[in-house]
Design a protein that fits this description.
CATH architecture of one domain: 3-Layer(aba) Sandwich
Number of helices: 14
Distance between the termini: 11 Å
Protein name: FAD-binding PCMH-type domain-containing protein
Strand order of the largest sheet: 14-11-13-12-18-19-16-21
InterPro entries: FAD-bd_PCMH (IPR016166), FAD-bd_PCMH-like_sf (IPR036318), FAD-bd_PCMH_sub2 (IPR016169), FAD-linked_Oxase-like_C (IPR016164), Oxid_FAD_bind_N (IPR006094)
Helix content: 25-40%
Pfam family, one: FAD_binding_4
Keywords: FAD, Flavoprotein
Strand content: 15-25%
Organism: Limnospira platensis NIES-46
Length: 451
Amino acid sequence: MTRASDKQNWDEFCALLGEIETISDRTQVAKLSQDYYHFSPILQPLLQDKTGDIVVLPRSESEVLKVAKLCVDSEIPLTVRGAGTGNYGQCVPLKGGVILDMSKMNNIVWMKPGLACVEPGVKLAALDKKTREIGWEMRMFPSTYRTATIGGFIGGGSGGIGSITYGQLRDNGNLHAVRVVTLEAEPRIIELRGDAVQNINHAYGTNGIITQLEIPLAPVYPWTELIVTFKEFMNAAKFGQALSQSDGIIKKLVSICAAPIPSYFIPFRDIIPSGEQAALLMVAETSLEPLQELIKNFQGKICYQKSTQETVKGTTIIEFTWNHTTLHARSIDPSLTYLQTLFPADPELKLIQECYDYFGDEVIQHLEFLRTGGNLHPAGLQIVRFTNEARLNEIIQYHEDRGAIIFNPHTYILEDGGMKKVDLQQLNFKQKYDPLGLLNPGKMRGWVDNG
């Protein structure tokens, strides 16, 4: 497929859009064609010159249908965009064309105890603020909570703060329904419910345009933020595992950072002792007493604590966990990169101990404890001192040879950054509802390989 700009009259295209808002300024278009792929030194040269030709900002489902129809009629590639907070080029257009920015579709359609219906452009923090008014909150969200949109999270995310209790987005019950605009010859709206939501969940917008979602909510607890320090990393890791397994302690975040990662957290430099490991936690205030006992059992010390009332203002530890940990590390040393690893469930954390001892300062351990498929796992978002691609691949192979799963953040291909196999359910859905392959082309290996 050639770039759409080679054959498309964009003035004519805009005229056909009528009142639908567009952006054609080259600087703005280039900016809205990017995400945080620069975390990867492998992706930087591959994606840095990739841009769309025009940005379209629909305000309604009917406007999305109109854009879809025009793209189908002229065979124009279309890449859906939320807030662009992804880390591996999920929303970067490889073939030019239309960037469909969904940020103007930001209405909360309805909410009730335990469930909310929203448009894809709703920001996660804004949704959380509204649902808290009725005593409920989002089950999980990424560290980009303040700026990310719900549509972008479903399309490109997998889990986050809250996954220690509720699992990942792909776990049953974490996405109730989606409305999707297709790119058939005559685009239409279809609704997916139950298991059918997996057709579109974490598909990078390659097989449909999400226009509405129903997501489950969790009861609001009075959350306290804490930082606990440890002299030894494995003490910190085993504490994280023990806390995660303590079902009676209500928690939302268990993040373990080996030294020197805490030194990259500038607001906490005078709080976290130099050279120590840190556990960043969100725990319900009512669970603080048993938590303190657990901390004592693993020779930890609380160096920072923020009450529920204080967490609504100022610095939040959320923005130092998950992929924000990498962001802060790279702000100090841009040569650093990262991995995304699902370690096997193991009460003794043997593989984590092995990797910590073997790699030393080359692969610095950062663990996020989560549940997935009903089981507790430590997930690594390790900070890597990058030397070259061959060495990075050796590090990945070392982990995979020992039973860890690497969700490779150094590829923009959907399957290669996931379970390394073609998802036939999503591929079949694309073949039916995007038969020309116009949606985010080049990202789904199953489609590319089948030509």
